[in-house]
Amino acid sequence: MNHTATPDLAATLIAENFSRDATGVLHVGGLPLTALADTYGTPLFVYDADGLRRAYRALKQAVAGFAEVDYSVKANPNPAVIRVFHAEGAGAEIASGAEFDAAMQAGVPPEKILFAGPGKSAADLDRVIGGGIGEIHLENREELCRVAAAAERHGTTVRVALRINPGATAQGGAMRMGGKPSPFGFDEEDLSEAVDAVEAEPRLHLVGLHLFAGTQGLKAETLLGQWAYGLDLAAQIARKIARPLETIDLGGGLGIPYFSGDATLDLNALRAGLPPLIETVSTNPLLAGARVVLEPGRYLAGPAGVYLARVLAVKVSRGSRFVITDGGMHHHLAASGNLGQIVKRDFPLVAVSGGEGVSPCTVSGPLCTPLDVLARAAMLPTLAEGDLVAVLQSGAYGLTASPTGFLSHPPPAEVLVDGGQAASIRSRGD
């Protein structure tokens, strides 16, 4: 069964993040997408720096007094995007040596970077430890040994945290990351043994906990429950090592609405639920001095971006309308429904210049596969060759989460709009 993002969701997102002018043309950061498409070509990713800042500031204010907010680089690793968040005070969570380089290029000090991920290579560990990384999150015994060996090679002691795969009661969100067999982290039932293994390594200094129970969470109560669970696990580690923790990383997982029926995460409800968690931290001497951190990516970057594609052809096949564009799953796998979704649902997709005569259509890309579909039942006006469509909620898990090499089409350009000025932050084909 297919589900379609309603025009109401798209209209709401445009009102919250963008605008249309008197002629109906969609603007990002005050600039018409028609002009940006003419200047930079299509397909094209466009990000609004003010939108990135609004999301960061809103979340930072909502969790003030409880947690700091870092940026999960995997959501969008373009250094220009990272730089916007760093200027707002965010550190960076990375998942590879290349993301470490991107964060450094964006100006993030190495001591404000933490490294997570279940398969850190010896080469990447040498890269980040040699670069002075602030913290590495351990996820298995072999990795623990690799980090210790790399620390020995570099003649240093590395600050580490344990990523814990929590019990079933901590699960939540659209994609469970805990509460089941998982490649991520040490199982909760093995916490004590994992602590002992780290403490036995003289080159490792255990400073914290990392918990990531689920992603794309849209309910405040789910997130609050996960965070409370994480604080309990942190207290267990601190009691085990008999010293205060320095870091409690409660992960990201904050979601954004993509589909009909999705509710926007209620930051007021999130804020209202924090006092018991703040009390838990402040009244426990083993936790009170710790830096509690959230490291979302999608929530911060997603709403500020659009993916722009130009119509190549419009056809009717056996009574169904197809709009064929120059953009597709090779640039935006998530919008195609092929990034882990079981039920393929349409991202909010709109005509850049508006129009009349709205009716359902399939929006497909240029690739030679039936999987290359950006929307299966999009409600769009009459379109013709040369018109533009825009996929909303495309600032996160877009270009770098897609099979850009498939059929050898050139990667699209990326543009950042800031203060009414557009700047290329990745050239077409780069």
Automatic annotation (TrEMBL):
<dbReference type="Pfam" id="PF00278">
    <property type="entry name" value="Orn_DAP_Arg_deC"/>
</dbReference>
<dbReference type="InterPro" id="IPR029066">
    <property type="entry name" value="PLP-binding_barrel"/>
</dbReference>
<dbReference type="InterPro" id="IPR009006">
    <property type="entry name" value="Ala_racemase/Decarboxylase_C"/>
</dbReference>
<dbReference type="Pfam" id="PF02784">
    <property type="entry name" value="Orn_Arg_deC_N"/>
</dbReference>
<dbReference type="InterPro" id="IPR022644">
    <property type="entry name" value="De-COase2_N"/>
</dbReference>
<dbReference type="InterPro" id="IPR002986">
    <property type="entry name" value="DAP_deCOOHase_LysA"/>
</dbReference>
<keyword id="KW-0456">Lyase</keyword>
<protein>
    <submittedName>
        <fullName>L-glutamyl-[BtrI acyl-carrier protein] decarboxylase</fullName>
    </submittedName>
</protein>
<keyword id="KW-0210">Decarboxylase</keyword>
<dbReference type="InterPro" id="IPR000183">
    <property type="entry name" value="Orn/DAP/Arg_de-COase"/>
</dbReference>
<feature type="domain" description="Orn/DAP/Arg decarboxylase 2 C-terminal">
    <location>
        <begin position="45"/>
        <end position="395"/>
    </location>
</feature>
<keyword id="KW-0663">Pyridoxal phosphate</keyword>
<feature type="domain" description="Orn/DAP/Arg decarboxylase 2 N-terminal">
    <location>
        <begin position="52"/>
        <end position="301"/>
    </location>
</feature>
<comment type="similarity">
    <text>Belongs to the Orn/Lys/Arg decarboxylase class-II family.</text>
</comment>
<dbReference type="InterPro" id="IPR022657">
    <property type="entry name" value="De-COase2_CS"/>
</dbReference>
<dbReference type="InterPro" id="IPR022643">
    <property type="entry name" value="De-COase2_C"/>
</dbReference>
